[in-house]
Design brief:
164 residues, alpha+beta, lipopolysaccharide transport protein A fold, eight-stranded antiparallel beta sheet
């Protein structure tokens, strides 16, 4: 590889990294602005919406979307949220999974959601559903841990192939 081509490749990677960094910062800014709009006396926002996007070239496609009916700051990094719904998406835009909980704590820095309360989750195609009590969902690697009373239902939808 000649030095001109190597230089172009390095610049392209650098630009891509900067775009990805800007998208993450934008997502955090949006989340912060939503919380900052909360009434000062009540310390509670009406809604919380925290999107995460795929890197380029799919930078306009949601990777995950956390939404809640209310969000109350409990520290500089965390909010207590109610009626929480988290959706994860594939790069083609199809729903990968949906997680719902009546109440939980969301950490902006670690991008984790946790609760001692109930949880319901399902795959986007409806083949698997689970319910339980006590959980932690890590959005960075889409990892869900349910600690108690786990109930799982797996359905066979015929010969339809599973998506990776």
């Amino acid at each position: 590889m000649n030095t001109d081509q190597h230089g172009r490749n390095c610049r392209e990677r650098n630009v891509r990294s900067r775009v990805e960094f800007c998208l993450v910062c934008f997502g955090l800014l949006v989340a912060t602005l939503v919380i900052a709009q909360s009434p000062a006396l009540l310390g509670q926002a009406n809604k919380l919406r925290v999107p995460e996007f795929y890197p380029a070239p799919n930078q306009r496609q949601f990777k995950s979307l956390l939404q809640s009916a209310t969000a109350q700051p409990i520290s500089a990094e965390e909010v207590r949220a109610t009626q929480v719904r988290v959706e994860t998406f594939r790069e083609d835009g199809s729903v990968e999974s949906v997680v719902e909980a009546p109440e939980c704590v969301y950490n902006f820095r670690s991008r984790t959601i946790r609760s001692a309360g109930p949880i319901e989750a399902r795959t986007g195609d409806g083949r698997m559903r689970l319910q339980g009590d006590g959980f932690q969902l890590t959005l960075t690697n889409k990892s869900l841990t349910v600690s108690n009373n786990l109930r799982t239902v797996i359905r066979d939808l015929g010969n339809k192939p599973l998506k990776p």
